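Teaching assistant here, posting this on the class forum so everyone can see the example we discussed in section. The complex has three components, and the goal was to see what a joint structure prediction looks like when all of them are supplied at once.
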Amino acid sequence: MAEFNLQCPVPLRAETVQMAHGGGGRIMRDLIESLLLPAFANPALEARHDAALLDLGGTELAFTTDSFVVTPLRFPGGDIGELAVYGTVNDLACCGARPRYLSCALILEEGLALAELEALVGSMRRAAGRCGVVIVTGDTKVVDRGRGDGLYINTAGIGLVPDRRRVGPERVRAGDAILVSGDLGRHGVAVLSVREGLAFESPVVSDCAPVHLLAEGLWDAGIDLHCLRDPTRGGLGAVLNEIALDSGLALEVREQDIPVAAGVAAACELLGLDPLYVACEGRLVAWMPEAQAGAALAALRALPGGEGAAVIGRVLPAGPVPVVLRTVLGTERVLDLPTGEQLPRIC
Amino acid sequence: MRFLEEYRDREAVARLAAALARRVTRPWSLMEVCGGQTHSILRFGLDRLLPPGLRLIHGPGCPVCVTPVAFIDKALAIAGRPGVVFCSFGDMLRVPGSGDDLLRVKSRGGDVRIVYSALDAVQLAARLPDREVVFFAVGFETTAPANALAAKEARRLGLANFSLLVSQVRVPPALELLLATGAARVDGFLAAGHVCAVMGTAEYQDLAARHRVPIVVTGFEPVDLLRGILDCVTQLEEGRAEVANAYERVVAPGGNPTARALIEEVFRPVDRAWRGLGPIPGSGLGLRPEYAGLDAEARFQVADLGGAESPDCRSGEVLLGVLSPPDCPAFGTRCTPEHPLGATMVSNEGACAAHHRYCRPGVRHG
Amino acid sequence: MCLGVPGCILDLGEPPLHYGRVAFGEVVRPVSLALVPGARPGDYVIVHAGTALEVIDQDSAARTWELLARLDPPGEAAP
C-alpha cells in the first residue's frame, strides 16, 4: 500500500534541538520516549495521557500543563491568551476531567507593549470565564529584548474526574467508531497565513475554542467514551497514530468523511500542506462503541462548536499498518506519524 | 476548486482504470520523470489501480533528489556565513550534504528562510539592504522562468545584495542518458506536464523517434495521470512510438514563448552533475555572462567546494530505474528515512523513501 | 518541481512583474502574471511558486472528458 508522507523526515542524528522536536510528530515522540519518560519514570507519566490522573486521598484529579509559544501573538480567530486557557482546559477534558483551576506563568520579553499585555491578559480572563475555570496562581518573568517572541505563556490545570469516567488508549477496542467534532486544519493555516505574510483575502479563522462542553455533552448523552484527544500540533494524523501505537490496534479513516473547510483545503493546496497534519485548537477526536456513534454524532451536532461533527472511521484489530487512509478514490494508503515540522512544499 | 476537483472524480478514475485493464495484454514498464507526479500517485494510491503487469517506475524527476551533494555543501557554506539570509523552497531544507543540512544550519543560528517564490527573495533583499540575500534556485525548467524574472527584477532594482545559487536542470538530456544506458527496461515515458507547459514538446520528438519509445505529456491529477498512462499503454499495444499530449489544457506544442524567451535571456545550457547519475552534458542551466554578477557561487567563492557521495549509496541506479530500492543491500538496514544515505531516501518523492513505506511486512506490495 | 495549482484571475497587475490577484477556491493571492501576457480576468491559470505558468485552455480541457465518454463500449456499465 502506498505511503504518502509530506513531512520532513527525521533530521540526521542531531546534536542540537531542532524545530522538529516540537513538531508533534515522530521526532518529538522519540525525544519524550528516549529522554523525558526515562528521566522522570512513574506510572502516571507512562500512561501517556494528555493529563496525569492522580489519586489524592481518594479524590481523582487530572493535572496537566502546556506552554504556548505561538507567533504572531494574535491571529484570525484568537490570540495566545485564549490559546493558553483553552489548550489546558482541553487537555483536562480529554482525560474526562471537569476543569477547575489554572496556573498562569508569563515570560515577557523586554519591550513588549504593556497595552498589548493588558489586552492579552483580558483575553485570558474572558476565556477562563467562558470555561468556568479560575486562574489561581501564577508567575511573571521578564527576559532581555531579543530573547522571546514578545510573550510566552505556560498554563497548568487541575480538574476533577467524576467516578466511572475512564478514557484512554487502553480502553480503545477493535470495532470502535472514530468521530471528529468539526473541520480540521483551521488553526495551523490561520497562524501560518499571518506568520508567512500570506495575504488571503478571505482569511481562514482559527478554530481556537474550548471543547470541554463537547466532552460533557457526550458524557451527558450516555456515551461510553473510550478515548478523547484534541488534535493540536501534528493534527489529526498525529493523534490517530498516537492512539494506534498506544492501544496496539489499527485505525482506518475515510478521506471523504474527514471534514476540511474549502478555504483550508485551498490554502493547503497552495502551500503544499496536508490538512490531516495541520494543527487544530478547538476540536475533539472521540472513540466509542460503534453502536453509539449515531447518538454521539447527534449530541455533538446539537452543541455550539460541534455542528460540523462527523464519523470518520473505525478501529480495526492490530495490523501491520497503524493507520490506514482510504482515499477519495477508494484506494488505500498509509497515514504515517508526521516525523517533524511540516514544511510547505513546492515540488 | 475548478480544474482541480473534477480531475479527482472517483467515477472518472474508475472508468479510466477499467479501460486500462482492458487495454493491457502484456507487461509494460512506464517511467514518470516528475516529482509532482510521484507525489500525486502516492497521495491518491493510483498505483493500486493499475492492472497487474503494468509497472510505474519513478525516474529522476525529483530536483531535490538530483541536486548534487556538492551543491548542498555550497548552500550550507553560504547559509552559515554571518550576514547572509539564505532563502529556499521548503523541499530543500532537509536534504543532507556531506554531513549537514540546512535545517541544522538554521538550528545553529544560520538565517535560513522558506520562501514560496524567487520573487519573494528579491523583495526581501530590497527590504534588507544590509544583508546578503541568496536564493537557492533549484528545479527543472518549471522554475527557470520565475527565477529568470527574479534575476531581471534584481537587476532592475539595482540590488547589490541579491544572488542566486543556481542548480537548475533540464529533463531531455537526462532522458537521453536513461535511454542510452538502456539498462532499465523502460517501455514508455510520462513527460512532466509543467516542464512541457514551459518548454513545449519539440525536444522529445527526437528522443521518441531515435529510441522508439512513446512519450506522453501528462498532468498531475488522478484523471490526468491515468489518461497519460492509458495513452502510453495504447501506443505500446499498437506498436507506436510518438510524442502525444494528454495535458492539452495546459501544454501547447510550442510551450510558453514568453517564458522560453526569459529563460533564453538569463540562462544558457551548461554541463551539470546529477546526484547519483554523475555529469550529464548540457543538462543544466547556468547564468549568462550578462547576469553572472548575480551568481552566488562566484560571490561567495564556493565554486570549488565539493562533496562526496556516500560510497554505499546507489541512488544513481535507482534514479535510472535500474535498481529497485528494495533490492539495494542498504535498503531498510543502513539506509532508512531516519538515517538516509542518499537523497532518494530523504525526499518525500524519492523512490527509496516511497518504497520504504510500501514494503511493510505483511502489507501487499502495491 | 511541478506543484502547479489552478486559479482564476481576478485582476491584472502593473509592469514589470504584473502582480494580479488570483483566486484559488476561496483563497485569493497575488500572483505574477508576467509569463502570461495575454491573460485576462476570468481566465484560469496554472500557478507555480507564485508565478502563473500558462493559461488553462478551456476548449482543450474538454478533450479529456470527450475521451472519457468514449471509453466504455456501448452497453457495458462503468465499474
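For the discussion questions: Residues 58-69 of chain C form the longest helix (12 residues). The first strand of chain C starts at residue 5 and ends at 11. Think about how each of these relates to the inputs above.
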